[in-house]
Each structure stands twice: as structure tokens, then as C-alpha cells.
Amino acid sequence: MIVWNNEGTICVFSIPDRLYHGTTKEAADQMMRNGLIDPRKWRPATDFGPAFYTTTSFDRAYKWQKHLSFRSPSKTGAVITVGVHKRSVKAHVHLFQHATLDWAEYVLYHRLKLCRDCCRGNHADIVRGPIADNSIVDWIERFNERAVKSFQDQIGRFHEFITTAPAGYRLSEAHLGTQVAFCNPDVADAILRIEEIKYFGPASGGEET
User: Once rounded to an integer, what is the mean pLDDT over residues 1-6?
Assistant: First the structure.
């Protein structure tokens, strides 16, 4: 897939042929009826801002649907296999290869809904990088209550927090996993398609495709 990189020059940005999206049965059924991409459903205060989020790992998506299924009326989750249509598309891509301080800063800005300060009106169409653990919600709430001298003072602490397990050991990048966020609905619509949906939970009888 051909895209524009951050410097505005043409480059090749590689996305796997298949990505995975963990969700609830109700949301998956709605996507089958109305289409995969609906920006009205995208939540703010997420790692890379409002977007359609996918992961390169089925296991990661499975764990996420399991978490969401507890809030589902049917108590059933779903993993959507998303096919990536290999075609040329012009897009602004932000790529984080590793769990760096720059990545942590980007996540913190977007979790605090300060995208304007971070992206300066030029938010990427696609962002790829490590997954920040959702337990950061508590940290963000505590951050908002703090009287901090400088936003920058908190970046190092935040980075350490989201890359450290509760038991105190540093999480590997393999453990964090990789996410690909499609922030531009037109770009997402052009290249993403539903290939398969698997349901997990009581309403599925365990598992169903």
C-alpha cells in the first residue's frame, strides 16, 4: 500500500493482510448490517484518538472481546477478522516502531484529549504502535487531579507506568502487542473489509463463526 509519510514523501507502509477487532456481539452484528466503519461510534480519550482500532494479534482481540462481553446484553463477545485490501491510497501515517518516550507522550496527549496540542490540526489517518494497557484510566484520573509544574515532567513517569506490570517487572514489546488505528473513515472504508466474525460466550454456545 502506498502512503505519504510524515515528511510528505512517498513511501511504502506495510500492513498485514488481516487485522483483528475485538468487540461485542451486538456491535459486530451492527457492523455486518450497516458497515464496518462508523466514526459516530469512535470514542475519544483513546491511545491514538478517535479511530477504528485493530490489532495484529487474534489473541489480543480475543482478550479485548472477553473484557467487553461483560457489558454486553447477551454476554457474548466477537472477534472480527478484517481483511486489508491491497491498493494504493494516499494517507498520512504515524508509525511508532517501539514503546518509546515519544509514543508514551502521544498516548498521554490523546488520552487527555489534547490532540490539538499534539497534532496541531494535522492528525494522522493511520497510526500504528504498541498498545497501552487500559489500566491507565486510573492514572489519567489521578493526573487530572494533580497540580503539576509541567506536562513534560509527567511523560517519563507515564512511560514507566504503562510499560511496567502490576508485579513490578518491565513488559516486553511482544507482551504489549501492536495496534493499528484508522483515524480517517474514508481511508478505512477504502481498504478494510469484514472477512469473518467469531462469537464467544453464552449466546454462541461457546464459539461460532
Answer: 49
How does pLDDT run across 67-96, given as a tens digit for each residue?
Answer: 888 877 888 999 999 999 877 778 888 999
Rounded CA-CA distance 206/198 in Å is 10
CA 132 to chain centre: 9
Global confidence as pTM: 0.87
Residue 153 identity (one-letter amino acid):
D
Rounded Cα–Cα distance for residues 6 and 31 (Å): 31
The closest alpha carbon to 182, from 60, 36, 79, 80, belongs to: 36
Instruction: Identify the CA nearest to 100 among candidates 46, 156, 152.
Output: 156
Please enumerate in sequence order all residues whose Cβ is within 8 A of that of 50, keeping only pairs 6 or more positions apart, or say none.
39, 42, 43, 44, 183
Chain-centroid distance of CA 193 in Å reads 17
Q: Both ends of the chain: CA-CA distance in Å?
A: 29
